[in-house]
């Protein structure tokens, strides 16, 4: 009994035999002990629980999303550097083939689902309620639940590499390889359950922000007076609501296949492996726009602000996003042109894919015209936005090349494809996220990120990005396919691969400079005492930095686009006097239920991964109990008194 | 916007939610009915599919009316756009999937 238990622990439960995994074990243990010791020593447990872990404040939830996403970016980046090290030279033995498969799988899954998504959710949590003049999101409790579901989903996925083994079927987890017969063990279960839990949180966030934007706008702010970032989040929310259910269903079906012996995606008993690819990409393609449209919104804000002009072609920007959201649902087959479809099917999706490039191109011209005759200020945020335009356009144009089905038979699954999607996903979401972080950082924390270090990080990262991915286009055309763990010498690929690896480490250096910049600025950064460091155009810059708990002491009335820019030009005495009349503010209470319920999700999920139903059942019961407790909570809000508002506003220098 | 009080949405605690409880029971009944049609009856594949698709549509309507505040709200244009887009996406995933997989394995 004891022997078999120890055998299980050493041979199935813990991943053993690889020195790098032991290193990871040690660093996880040390980091966990370190955190516990530091928090205990500083007596911060109560503060951590009351101020952060149970918070339903959208600003704090946004910050927690961003911290989690930065940590996940580090993990995904280390995965990338491991792959680039393995591929730097031919016939390397840094990683074994199995280990390499696991690393590219976790790299892809983490970068999309646990980096891009939480960064986007973080930015929208911070900026959207402030841009529309609201005091919180529509459903603050649900917002906290979304965050904790994402967090525990990510943790469940991440522990796979030290407990039980990582998934290795790629981030797209194609059947039949991801099915039980070819892929026994718990790795794929971690993918299915971890991503599912995070996905529930994403769906809830989509609903939350749709309702927030439709229902909670300041008086006078009609839809066509909203800031462009808010517009992009409105449309993204709609895409989330309609795309994520397909993924939820696909993940559930494959989980049923693996855990309960069904055959939805296996050829045996009449299943269809291709149906997995079909459902995956029905979500997967709109997912690209879920991470892309919000950063289009960020760039629209940043380019208008630092050109000191109003955005060019506002209505066209909106309608092009609407067009993208509609057409984005009918292009998914271009991810598997080569899977044996008829010519008619390929032709339809080839054309729809080429069409979706049009509204995207329209937006590029709108940003260029916004800068035309503007007074451009080269801040760090603006540099990221400026670099986005040419770099993203290269990714977009190679995307149109891939969209042509006959040509795609040449490019498919080559490094040309790898270069293309990194061009769009790094020059788009990653540049956009850094752009948004530098832009909104003062509003989040009340101090500025150092501009000199920020610009250095930008140049290092942007140049390294091109050094890393430009050679990939060439090496792809020379015949190198994606996901190969090593390659022979004498193919003409070696110099390109070596250059790519140098670029990858350069991007790592750029990330480290950003991390240094954050630490340095936290200690010595310039305070933002005005609340409006960039001469901003939208309402979030009208309040102090960091924003008080209730955001707006009095709700602003909006009469035009760029509401704050207009208000600054017409600031009159009457307006100022009116601001003094405060009313008590009604705010939601903090709640421990979101984190506890998500912890039960984690427990039930871990049980499902290992098929330990003795663990699933108490986890599931815990989830239901949390729901019932929440249903009978009646005192879920508190009132902030006028005196307290006056005190806070006076401390921020807003009251004379 | 008219009902915007610029506060977190407050939960209403009016009467006992009979409509929701009834909807939940109806949904459960329909789900088990579909399961019974597949496992308990041995109809032809065609008949089974027709019946369970009919039950699925019925269940979707129950969800819309009993849980999703379909008949409430002050801005019907949001509802109409939402339903129209939902129908579009559903039609695309069903029709195009059938078209794609018809010739595939």
UniProtKB/TrEMBL annotation, chain A:
Cofactor, free-text remark: Heme A3. Binds a copper B center.
Gene3D superfamilies: 1.10.287.70, Cytochrome c oxidase-like, subunit I domain
Membrane-traversing stretches: 20-42, 63-83, 103-128, 140-163, 190-211, 231-256, 276-299, 311-335, 347-369, 381-405, 417-441, 456-478, 498-519, 587-606, 612-632
InterPro entries associated with the record: Cyt_c_oxase-like_su1_dom (IPR023616), Cyt_c_oxase-like_su1_sf (IPR036927), Cyt_C_Oxase_1 (IPR000883), Cyt_c_Oxase_su1_BS (IPR023615), QoxB (IPR014233)
Pathway: Energy metabolism; oxidative phosphorylation
CDD domains cross-referenced by the UniProt entry: Ubiquinol_Oxidase_I
Keywords: Cell membrane, Copper, Electron transport, Heme, Hydrogen ion transport, Ion transport, Iron, Membrane, Metal-binding, Oxidoreductase, Respiratory chain, Transmembrane, Transmembrane helix, Transport
Cell compartments where the protein resides: Cell membrane
Pfam entry (one): COX1
Cofactor: ferriheme a; Cu cation
Principal place of residence: membrane
Cytochrome oxidase subunit I profile domain span: 41-559
Enzyme Commission number(s) from the entry: 1.10.3.-
Protein topology in the membrane: Multi-pass membrane protein
Record flagged with keyword Ion transport: yes
SUPFAM superfamilies in the cross-refs: Cytochrome c oxidase subunit I-like
Catalytic reaction equation(s): 2 a quinol + O2 = 2 a quinone + 2 H2O
PANTHER family xrefs: CYTOCHROME BO(3) UBIQUINOL OXIDASE SUBUNIT 1, CYTOCHROME C OXIDASE SUBUNIT 1
Record family assignment: Belongs to the heme-copper respiratory oxidase family.
Role description: Catalyzes quinol oxidation with the concomitant reduction of oxygen to water.
Protein name (database record): Quinol oxidase subunit 1
Organism of origin: Sporolactobacillus spathodeae
Source taxonomy: Bacteria, Bacillati, Bacillota, Bacilli, Bacillales
UniProtKB/TrEMBL annotation, chain B:
Subcellular location: Cell membrane
Transmembrane annotation, as ranges: 21-39, 45-68, 80-102
Top-level division of the source organism's lineage: Bacteria
Reaction catalyzed: 2 a quinol + O2 = 2 a quinone + 2 H2O
Membrane topology according to the record: Multi-pass membrane protein
Matches recorded under Pfam families: COX4_pro
EC number: 1.10.3.-
Protein name: Quinol oxidase subunit 4
């Amino acid at each position: 009994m004891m022997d078999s238990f120890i055998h299980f622990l050493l041979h199935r439960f813990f991943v053993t035999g690889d020195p790098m995994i032991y290193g990871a074990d040690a660093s996880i243990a040390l980091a966990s002990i370190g955190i516990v010791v530091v928090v205990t020593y500083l007596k911060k447990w109560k503060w951590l629980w009351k101020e952060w872990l149970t918070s339903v404040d959208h600003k704090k939830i946004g910050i927690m999303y961003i911290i989690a996403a930065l940590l996940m970016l580090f993990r995904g980046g280390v995965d990338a550097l491991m792959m680039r090290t393995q591929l730097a030279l031919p016939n390397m033995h840094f990683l074994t083939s199995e280990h390499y498969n696991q690393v590219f799988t976790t790299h892809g899954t983490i970068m999309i689902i646990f980096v891009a998504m939480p960064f986007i959710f973080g930015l929208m949590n911070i900026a959207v309620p402030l841009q529309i003049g609201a005091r919180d999101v529509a459903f603050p409790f649900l917002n906290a639940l979304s965050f904790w579901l994402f967090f525990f989903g990510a943790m469940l996925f991440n522990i796979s590499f030290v407990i039980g083994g990582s998934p290795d079927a790629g981030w797209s987890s194609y059947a039949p390889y991801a099915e039980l017969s070819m892929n026994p063990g718990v790795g794929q279960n971690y993918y299915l359950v971890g991503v599912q839990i995070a996905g529930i949180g994403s769906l809830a966030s989509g609903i939350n922000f749709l309702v927030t934007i439709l229902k909670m706008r300041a008086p006078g702010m009609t839809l066509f007076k909203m800031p462009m970032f808010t517009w992009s989040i409105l449309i993204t929310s709609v895409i989330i609501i309609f795309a994520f259910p397909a993924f939820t269903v696909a993940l559930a079906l494959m989980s049923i296949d693996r855990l309960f012996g069904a055959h939805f995606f296996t050829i045996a008993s009449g299943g269809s492996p291709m149906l997995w690819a079909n459902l995956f990409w029905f979500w997967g393609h709109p997912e690209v726009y879920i991470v892309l449209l919000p950063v289009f919104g960020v760039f629209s804000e940043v380019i208008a602000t630092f050109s000191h002009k109003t955005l060019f072609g506002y209505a066209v920007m909106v309608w092009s996003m609407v067009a993208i959201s509609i057409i984005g649902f009918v292009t998914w087959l271009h991810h598997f042109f080569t899977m044996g479809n008829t010519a008619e099917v390929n032709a339809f999706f080839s054309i729809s894919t080429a069409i979706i490039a049009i509204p995207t191109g329209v937006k590029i011209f709108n940003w260029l015209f916004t800068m035309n005759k503007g007074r451009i200020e080269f801040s760090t945020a603006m540099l990221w936005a400026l670099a986005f335009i040419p770099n993203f356009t290269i990714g977009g144009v190679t995307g149109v090349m891939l969209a042509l089905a006959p040509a795609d038979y040449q490019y498919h699954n080559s490094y040309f494809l790898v270069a293309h999607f990194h061009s769009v996903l790094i020059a788009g979401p990653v540049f956009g996220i850094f752009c948004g972080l530098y832009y909104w950082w003062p509003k989040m924390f009340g101090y500025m990120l150092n501009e000199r270090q920020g610009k250095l990080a930008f140049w290092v990262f942007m140049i390294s990005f091109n050094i890393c991915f430009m050679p990939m286009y060439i090496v792809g055309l020379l015949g190198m396919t994606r996901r190969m763990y090593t390659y022979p010498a004498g193919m003409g690929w070696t110099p390109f691969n070596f250059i790519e690896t140098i670029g990858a480490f350069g991007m790592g250096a750029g990330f480290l400079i950003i991390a240094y910049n954050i630490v340095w600025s936290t200690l010595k950064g310039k305070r933002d005492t005005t609340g409006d460091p960039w001469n901003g155009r939208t309402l979030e810059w009208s309040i102090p930095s960091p924003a008080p708990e209730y955001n707006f002491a009095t709700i602003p009335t909006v009469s035009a686009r760029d509401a704050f820019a207009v208000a600054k030009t017409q600031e009159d005495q009457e307006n100022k006097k009116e601001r003094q009349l405060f009313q008590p503010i009604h705010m939601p209470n903090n709640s421990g239920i979101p984190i506890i319920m998500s912890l039960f999700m984690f427990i039930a999920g871990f049980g499902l991964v290992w098929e330990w139903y003795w663990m699933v059942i108490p986890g599931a019961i815990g989830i239901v109990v949390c729901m019932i407790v929440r249903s009978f909570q009646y005192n879920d809000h508190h009132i902030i008194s006028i005196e307290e508002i006056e005190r806070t506003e006076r401390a921020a220098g807003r009251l004379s | 916007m008219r009902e915007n009080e610029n506060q977190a949405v407050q939960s209403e605690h009016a009467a006992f939610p009979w409509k929701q409880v009834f909807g939940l029971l109806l949904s459960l009944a329909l789900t088990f009915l579909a399961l019974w049609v597949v496992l308990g009856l041995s109809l032809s594949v065609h008949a089974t599919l027709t019946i369970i698709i009919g039950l699925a549509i019925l269940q979707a309507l129950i969800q819309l009316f009993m849980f999703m505040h379909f008949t409430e709200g002050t801005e019907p244009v949001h509802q109409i756009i939402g339903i129209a887009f939902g129908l579009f996406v559903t039609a695309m995933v069903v029709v195009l999937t059938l078209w794609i997989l018809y010739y595939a394995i």
